[in-house]
Design a protein that fits this description.
This protein has about 450 residues and is of the alpha/beta class. It contains 13 helices and 18 strands. Strands 1, 2, 5, 6, 7, 8, 17 and 18 form an eight-stranded mixed beta sheet that branches. The chain is elongated and about 70 Å long. The protein starts with a strand and ends in a 5-residue tail after the last helix.
């Protein structure tokens, strides 16, 4: 590790790699510093789908999408609380980012419909493949990658420099052009969750081992501001079991996220009764789940839905969930109830009521008419064998954080730019607003990471 670089990237997930590659391609000397022993961050825990519109893959599948439709969906999902400048920055660069990922060698599978999309635009890939390809490219470009090195604070009084902790000692590094904060969120920090999102304190906290809010605290320490904290919401769909603290920053041992409701499954609580419209965003469902007894809900699906299992996106890999013991299976609904301790008669009545409504095309209890957003039609749960998964809400990612402008420059409470300071990925706020569309987490990591790295490389610190 050198004593100075043009650009320093804090964090080595999707956003960090995108920023490092862009900065190096712009001719900068780059340090990419990762506090964990392994690169990847929460990106490895994600469903690894990217939300892109009007791509060649969509056209090949006969999917009609456009920037205008994508914009309308993002603003609708975000309750028009999104920063419009960040929306436009994403839309301006999303297709070139898709092409960039293809150029890295990323292999996308079939485009899928996912949460809060009016048309299928979820482009799934394997997270380990994505990160490995990006890492190889970064090293090829001469990026100095350092693991087990934790950023502690930034000083701006006389030039720009950053303090790291490595091997039990303090190491200062001078920065000639810019620092990119790409440290991810704060899902693993009990303190920050309680401070910024107390309503989510009951949610399970998972995600990358390093998701403890370091970058947010560094930004606040130099006058940065935060955005969207009031919208932090847990994600519904993780199996309800105890998970150990991660021993390494990798997907191995991570719980699956299962979203069978977007293929037609229903949700019941511990009383065996439905409690909401299952077509809503998994963020909305996360909040509703936390209000149920013991913050628990059960996903119920039949063979018709189960047979729609695909490897990617992982949220619909029901076969793997069954093989790993998360999904339970039985020949009848009554037997299914017994596998998780629900009342068999109540559950059977719940399913039969829903089936009558589904056959008539009208959910009389909660008004569900689609599988997700405005796509698909409800289907009866009537083809055995049947499957059930006890589920809860989890903070994998926080989707809120520091304020940036459309060039990914950090700004203070007055909107003034903090010279030489940039951020990208999960650590930033303002993009999602009050809701979240599947694929925009990884999408903004790649899109905004490239923007931050590129702009940092041409920065001139005053």
């Amino acid at each position: 590790m050198q004593s100075s670089y043009d650009v320093v990237i804090i964090g080595a997930g999707m956003a960090g790699h995108a920023a490092a590659i862009a900065a190096a391609e712009a001719g900068a000397s780059v340090l990419m510093a990762e506090k964990c022993e392994e690169f990847g961050g929460s990106s490895l825990y994600s469903g690894a789908t990217f939300a892109f519109a009007d791509t060649q893959l969509q056209r090949q599948q006969g999917i009609d999408d456009s920037t205008a439709t994508f914009r309308a969906d993002l603003l609708d999902v975000g309750g028009h609380k999104n920063d419009p400048e960040l929306i436009e920055a994403y839309l301006d660069h999303q297709l070139e980012t898709f092409d960039w990922l293809i150029g890295l060698g990323v292999s996308f599978s079939e485009v899928q419909l996912s949460s809060n999309m009016s048309v299928p635009r979820s482009h799934p890939a394997l997270p380990r493949q994505i990160l490995d390809l990006a890492h190889v490219r970064a090293l090829e470009l001469g990026v100095d990658y350092q693991a087990n090195i934790a950023a502690k604070r930034v000083e701006t009084a006389s030039g720009l420099r950053i303090l790291f902790a490595k091997d039990g000692r303090s190491v200062w590094c001078d920065v000639a052009k810019g620092i990119v904060i790409a440290t991810g969120g704060f899902a693993r920090s009990k303190t920050l969750v309680e401070d910024f999102a107390p309503s989510q304190a009951a949610a399970m906290r998972l995600g990358g081992k390093g998701s403890t809010g370091d970058g947010i605290e560094i930004a606040l320490g130099i006058g940065g501001e935060v955005a969207d904290m009031e919208f932090v919401t847990a994600t519904f769909g993780v199996p309800l079991i105890d998970y150990p603290e991660p021993q390494k920053n990798d997907i191995e041992g991570a719980p699956p996220l299962v979203h069978a409701m977007y293929r037609g499954a229903i949700l019941v609580n511990e009383t065996g009764k439905r409690f909401t419209n299952e077509a809503q965003s998994y963020k909305v469902l996360g909040d509703i789940c936390l209000s149920q007894p013991n913050a628990t809900a059960f996903q119920i699906l039949d063979t018709k839905i189960f047979e729609q299992a695909v490897e990617l996106p992982r949220t619909h890999n029901y076969k793997k969930a069954l093989a790993e013991g998360y999904l339970r299976k039985a020949d009848t609904i009554e037997e299914l109830a017994g596998t998780v301790g629900l009342d068999p008669q109540v559950l059977a009545e719940t399913v039969e009521t829903y089936n009558r409504d589904a056959r008539a095309g009208r959910d009389t209890q909660f008004g569900r008419t689609t599988l997700g957003k405005n796509v698909g039609t409800i289907v009866p749960i009537d083809a055995g064998p049947f499957y059930i998964m006890p589920s809860t809400a989890v903070l994998f990612s926080t989707y809120a954080g520091v304020k940036v402008d459309r060039d990914m420059r950090l700004v203070d409470a007055q909107g003034l730019v903090l010279p030489g300071m940039y951020a990208a990925g999960e650590v930033i706020g303002g993009f999602h607003g009050k809701g979240y569309m599947s694929g925009t987490g990884m999408g903004k990591a790649a899109v905004f990471g490239r923007l931050a790295g590129r702009n940092a490389a041409k920065s001139h610190i005053q």
